[in-house]
Design goal:
The chain is an alpha/beta fold. The chain is about 30% helix and about 30% strand.
């Protein structure tokens, strides 16, 4: 298929990697991002083996790993005593010379992606949103918030869980749902002997993830009322107090959480659209169509894979409709597994459902993620 113009709404991880995948297929790309400063909070993100493979597929892996801490090993601790329950390594899907997983600061990840987008000649326009869209079947006429206009062969909504693009093209789609949990993150110095991610399960749920430059980040999960609001002042104290019966490995680190501005916390909101993921010439990717919680650490990974698959299908298909349908069909089972089971883990942590074997679920998920996309 030939495309003369492509608009991506949203300059986050999903939007940028989709732009890279499209440019590598030779498609023209324009990105708009609502944030005029294109800011990203400075805490980290874990990306698992399927993301490492995806970064290699996009020819980004060396640049990516130059900013990241790679590791193979996961250690799981349980109970208030922090007793080691399991330790395992995951496969190196990008080859024996590359790690299985990586932890990276979100700012560093964006800088790597944005630099490649620029190298590949995509256009990025900041401080813009879509004011109006009209799909006449042959193209999409778009009016932007600054009054400018453009016409595009396709439009890709990568604008997150509260996607305005989803509201425009799928007004009857489910609305974001608050799960009852918040996730809290904070950067800390990393011990010299840390050799992988450490996960802590019940009654305090959280973890420690290696990053580059001698840093790691702590994440904690807490149950909060729907009307809970976190002011900036006092955020560090709130994070120190958000969990109870912390295991000793985490308890000794909590006093180091002192900078209110360094706390990044948000409610966990989910969306999953079971029907079509497109309308006409506009299609949705990532959190705009299947936002999950971080319990399986695959939210960003699913968005990255979405972009690769969508670019492939647009290259292979005869029509836009065929490409969008094939993209959804390839992605659906994989993202549904992540979305539904991430919520299940959180519901168990909050006591909403009976306990189940998370280890078995983790093994099942790893088995799925190692499969080609």
């Amino acid at each position: 298929m030939e495309l003369g113009s492509t608009l991506i709404i949203g300059g986050g991880i999903g939007g940028l990697t989709t732009a890279i995948a499209l440019r590598r297929q030779g498609f023209p790309v324009e990105i708009i991002e609502r944030d005029p400063d294109w800011t990203v909070y400075g805490v980290g993100i874990i990306q698992q083996m399927n993301v490492i493979r995806a970064m290699k597929q996009l020819d980004l892996l060396d640049a990516y790993l130059s900013k990241a801490a790679g590791f193979d090993q996961t250690t799981i601790f349980v109970g208030p005593g922090g007793v080691q329950d399991a330790q395992f390594s995951t496969p190196r899907l990008a080859g024996p010379d590359y790690p299985s997983n990586a932890g990276i600061r979100r700012r560093d990840l964006q800088s790597v992606l944005a630099a490649r987008v620029d190298e590949l000649g995509a256009t990025v326009r900041l401080g813009l949103t879509v004011a109006d869209m009209n799909d006449d079947g042959e193209g999409v006429d778009v009016t932007f918030s600054d009054g400018s206009k453009g016409r595009y062969d396709i439009v890709i909504g990568a604008d997150g869980v509260f996607s305005q693009t989803r509201e425009k093209i799928l007004p009857d789609a489910p609305k974001p749902n608050y799960t009852g949990q918040w996730v809290w993150r904070y950067n800390l110095p990393m011990p010299s002997d840390m050799d992988g991610i450490q996960i802590f399960a019940g009654p305090c749920n959280g973890g420690l993830v290696p990053m580059a430059d001698g840093l790691m980040y702590m994440f904690l999960l807490s149950t909060q009322d729907a009307d809970f609001v976190l002011p900036t002042e006092g955020a560090a104290e709130a994070m120190r107090n958000c969990v109870h019966m912390a295991p000793p490995q985490l308890a000794k680190l909590l006093p180091q959480i002192t900078d209110d501005a360094g706390v990044v916390a948000r409610p966990l909101e989910t969306v999953f659209v079971e029907g079509d993921w497109h309308q006409g010439r506009t299609v949705l990717i990532g959190d705009a169509i299947h936002a999950s919680t971080p319990h399986l650490a695959q939210g960003a990974g699913m968005a990255i894979e979405d972009g690769i698959v969508l670019a492939e299908e647009l290259s292979n298909a005869a029509t836009v409709e065929d490409a969008f349908t094939a993209y959804r069909n390839r992605r659906f089972a994989r993202v549904q597994h992540v979305a539904e089971n991430s919520i299940r883990i959180g519901d168990m942590q909050m006591g909403k459902i009976d306990p189940f074997d998370v280890g078995a679920l983790t093994g099942q998920t790893i088995g799925m993620m190692v499969q080609p996309i």
